[in-house]
Design goal:
about 450 residues; alpha+beta; Triger factor/SurA peptide-binding fold; Chitinase A, domain 3; 3 domains; 4-stranded antiparallel β-sheet; 16 helices; about 45% helix; elongated
Length: about 450
Amino acid sequence: MRKTLLLLSALALLMALAWPLSGTAQDRGDTPLDRIAVLVEDDVIMQSELDQRLNTVKQQIRSRGNMPPPDDVLIPQVVERLIIERLQLQQATRMGIRIDDISLNETMERIARENRMSLPQFRDRLVADGIDYQVFREQIRDEMTIGQLRRRQVDNRLQVSEQEIDDLIASESGAIDQDVEYRLSHILVPLPEGATADDIQQARSRGEALRKRVAEGENFSELALSESGGQQALEGGDLGWRSAAQVPTLFARSVVLMREGDVSELIRSPSGFHLIKLQERRGGERAQITQTHARHILIQPTAVLSENEAQERIISLRNRVLMGDSFADMARAHSDDRGSAMRGGDLGWTNPGDLVPQFEEVMNRLPPGELSEPFLSPFGWHVVEVIERREHDSSRQLMRAQAREIIRDRKREEEAELWLRRLRDESYVELRLQTRVSGL
C-alpha cells in the first residue's frame, strides 16, 4: 500500500508560494526564506516547490529499486517537468478550463476506492505519509485540468481516414487481432524546433553514443533518468505495457520484430532521436463474449395510454402468445419498437452492453425458448423471448472501430509531444536557480 501511495504522490506538486519578507534569514537568525527558482511567463516556481518535487521523485525512483542519479543530473528533469506543468495550467486558465468541486470529489473517491479505502481512510493515510491532503487534492485538480486541456488542444484536432484504418488492419505491425503486449522503455534525444543540420548531427551522435553505452552493459533505465528528454524520463523511460496496436507508429515495426532485452536502432522523428528497449513480452487469449439472439414486444405509455394501461396491454399480449398466437405476428401488429416490429420483434444478435441494463438483466436470466414476465425499462413495458445464445469472438466485427481508436491513440501521443515542445519553445522561462543547471 505504501508503494501505491508513493506512486500516487507523484501527482503532488507541493505548491508553496511563500514570498520573501524584508530582511534576510541571516539577519534574523531563523530558517532561510523561500526564493524564486524559475520564472514561467507571469508565474513562478519557488525553490521550496522544486525541493519538494525533487524529494518526491527520489522516493519514487527508490521505490522502483533504482538509485537516484546525482542532483545535477536529476534537477534539470524535475525543473523541466514543473515548467511544462505550469505552462499547461496557464493556458488552461486562459481558455477558461476549470474543474469543479463535484468532479474533483468524485475523482478523489475513485482514487480512494482503487486503494481499497474509504475517502477518510485515504486522507488519513496520506497525512501519515507526510503528504498534505489539501495540497494533494488541488494537484489532482491540476492533473484533471491538464487532461481536459490536452483533449481540447490535441484530441479534438485528430483526424483518422478510412485509408489509414485499412492500412492498419492490413499491417503486420498493427497486429490488432493478436493479443500480445509489450513492456517498453524509451530514451529521447530531443531536437529543437527548426533544428539546424549541426543540431541534427549532434543529436544523432549523442543517440548513437547512448546506444553503444547500453550495448556495453549500462543500465537502460538509469540512462533514461539521466539522459532522456522524453516525458517518461523520471520513470526510467518506462512506457508500461502496451498491445502491439498501441505502440506508437514510429516504433511499431521495430518492436514487433524485437526480442526481450533488445534495443532498437536509432529512430528519427520530428521530436528527435529515439531508442526503444523491449523489456518484456506477454500474450493472452482472445476474449469470447456471449451473444444473445432475442425478440421482444414493447408497449410505451403515452399521453393517452397510462403506465398501468400499458402494463395491462403487455400482459394481454403475453397471454395470447402463451395461448398459441404467433409472437412475430403480435410484435408486427402491436409493438411500439417499429424497427424490430417489422422483423417480428427480432433484435438480432446482441453483445453485452448493447441494450439498456433493465432489459439485459431480464434477458440474461432467460433460457432459450422461454418467454419473460412483463417488465419495465426506460422505454416502456416489454416481454422478451430468447431464441438462442452463442459464444462469439467479435474482434473482427469491431476491428474497424478498434483500428480507428488505435490510430487516434498513436496520433494523440505524437501530437501531444510536438504540442508540448511548441508550447515550451514559445514561452518565456527564466532560471533563477542558485546553481546553474546544465541542459536547460
